[in-house]
Amino acid sequence: MALAGTPVTILTGFLGSGKTTLILNLIPQLPTTYKLALLKNEFGDLAVDSKLASQKAISGVRELLNGCICCNLVGQLSDALVQLREEVNPDRIIIETSGSAFPATLAMEVSRLSRERDGAFVLDGVISVIDVENWKGYEDTSYTAKMQARYTDLIVFNKWEMVDERRFDECLDRVGDLDLPIAWVKSVKGWVDQDVIMGIDGALVAKEGALAAVDVSPPPDHEHHHQSEVEVLSIALAAESEVPSPVDVDSLEDFLLSAPKDEVYRIKGLLVATQPPDDSTGQRSTSITEDSINKPAVYVLNWAFSRWNITLLNEGMGPLGKDSLRLTIVLARGEATKWKKRIENEGLLKLQGDEQKSSLTAEKVG
């Protein structure tokens, strides 16, 4: 099953901030057959870190050197993405770029390429890595700086273990100067939970199974990282008849629109619907054909930092069992209790038709 094209993750941060370490710590969390491709851009004419990356099971590496990827190399970006897709056929592409690159330009280029190639690529997230030990804050709080921050979905604070708490608080203050809602987490020596860095995709569904790809089950040796930096809710909605029934997609869409990206980082799940909502751009996935409309089917939801896509799962009703909806919600630390109460008490998730009786469970994971 192909989920809305090849996911693209943009990873930005100044030289030495720890971007490559973040990637190398991500790889062991993925299925062994998962194919990750890397597109790198650093100033200079030497290949930085590529040999190391290739030795760590990355399927393909392309480098755009001697220039800024969002300026004079932007045309080469599209060519390199297409080349990686055609030659490597990766499950995901990570664009690793220097801190001087403008994330908005890269995000818009990926979106343009997706439109031109019928959804062959989908932007999954823009992540900025900050070296807490050396970062002095944004150069200014001008319109440009705010635009950069606005197109950053997640800030990863790296190397915070090397400084005192006051220094870390100064970094948080510098982010706060922009007066924008920005999600952030602290890495643990460059390690961040896979469920924060990337959303659900076709390869994870194919290699782990639909339910396993949706659920969050961190390995024991990393469980403390997961619990300390993010909180997770597991949601299940079922009809009292114990027969999967379509969810109310209008309520679901309102729920997705209402989730602030500095509180809710990612939502992934499975749902039964007769006519699923469009994705966050107003477009319908190419996987959803006229034949699949107006009859119950299972769909995969991938929501990341206020963007989402919904794709038809060609596995019948089996993966959900008796449930009509299963969601895993990854939240900022301290937000799980509030959102658990909202979901339980405000009717944010419900079945289609007012007469439908249902049971809803919301449980905190970990």
- Total beta-strand segments: 13
Distance between the termini: 30 Å
Large-scale geometry: globular
Rounded mean pLDDT is 77
Helices, strands, pairings?
Layout lengths: L5 E7 L6 H8 L9 E6 L8 H6 L2 E6 L10 H14 L4 E6 L5 H14 L4 E11 L11 H8 L3 E5 L6 H12 L6 E4 L7 H4 L4 H7 L1 H5 L8 H7 E10 L9 H10 L5 E10 L23 E8 L2 E6 L10 E10 L3 H10 L12 E8 L1
Parallel strand pairs: 1-4, 1-5, 2-3, 2-4, 5-6, 6-7
Antiparallel strand pairs: 8-12, 8-13, 9-10, 9-12, 10-11
What do you see in this structure?
With 366 residues, the protein is of the alpha/beta class. It is built from twelve helices and 13 strands. It has helices at 19-26, 50-55, 74-87, 103-116, 143-150, 165-176, 194-197, 202-208, 210-214, 223-229, 249-258, 336-345, and strands spanning 6-12, 36-41, 58-63, 92-97, 121-131, 154-158, 183-186, 230-239, 264-273, 297-304, 307-312, 323-332, 358-365. The longest helix is centred in the first third of the chain and has 14 residues, at 74-87. It starts with 5 loop residues before the first strand and ends with a strand. The model is unreliable at 43-49, 64-74 and 218-227 (pLDDT under 50).
Give a quick set of tags describing it.
366 residues; globular; 13 strands; seven-stranded parallel sheet; six-stranded antiparallel sheet; alpha/beta
Short description:
The protein has 366 residues and is of the alpha/beta class. It has helices at residues 19-26, 50-55, 74-87, 103-116, 143-150, 165-176, 194-197, 202-208, 210-214, 223-229, 249-258, 336-345; strands at 6-12, 36-41, 58-63, 92-97, 121-131, 154-158, 183-186, 230-239, 264-273, 297-304, 307-312, 323-332, 358-365. The protein is globular, with a radius of gyration of 20 Å.
